[in-house]
Amino acid sequence: MLLNLLVGIPVMVLCLVMQALFVAFSLRPYVRYVRGGRIPASPWRLTLLLSAVMLVMLLGNFVQMAIWGLLFRGLGEFDSFATALYHSGVNFATLGYGDIVMTERWRLLGPLEAANGILMFGVSTAVMTATLTDIIKHHFDRGRPD
Fold it and tell me: Domain Potassium channel spans what residues (predicted)?
């Protein structure tokens, strides 16, 4: 069990740093346009901006699944990266299918990845909610007479 924690916790920290980088990257266009006072007037441009933030956050989650998959492959748990990535995705999304099970030695890494995944999806949701709330606030503030 201790070995699983010694291996899994640094990967969780790496994923946290990766998520922070993806948050910073996804918010760059948002900060440039919305906080800069240039809210897109067109609903299509606003949708594109929000979609870009969402896609970058999803990419960040996928990269983290790939990191866990590489760890599982590196530990010799799976013969192919595709299988390791599939198992990682099931863990990260907290689906828990159980169709592929790791050996008893490394089995605790699954729940660690699930805890990591649910936290990171929460961060992605928070970023999207904050972005949308701020855009709505700025939109109404702009339309209010001084």
Answer: 66-133
2-35+42-136 CATH pick, 3.30.420, 2.60.40, 1.10.287, 1.25.40: 1.10.287
CB 83 within 8 A of CB 98: no
Please state, in angstroms and rounded to a whole number, the distance separating the CA atoms of residues 68 and 9.
11
Give CA–CA dist 114/110, Å, rounded.
6
**Distance, CA of 10 to CA of 32 (rounded, Å):** 33
Tens of pLDDT, residue by residue over 105-135, are 999 999 999 999 999 999 999 998 888 887 7
pTM (two decimals): 0.85
pLDDT digit string (tens) for 57-116? 999 999 999 999 999 999 999 999 999 999 999 999 999 898 999 999 999 999 999 999
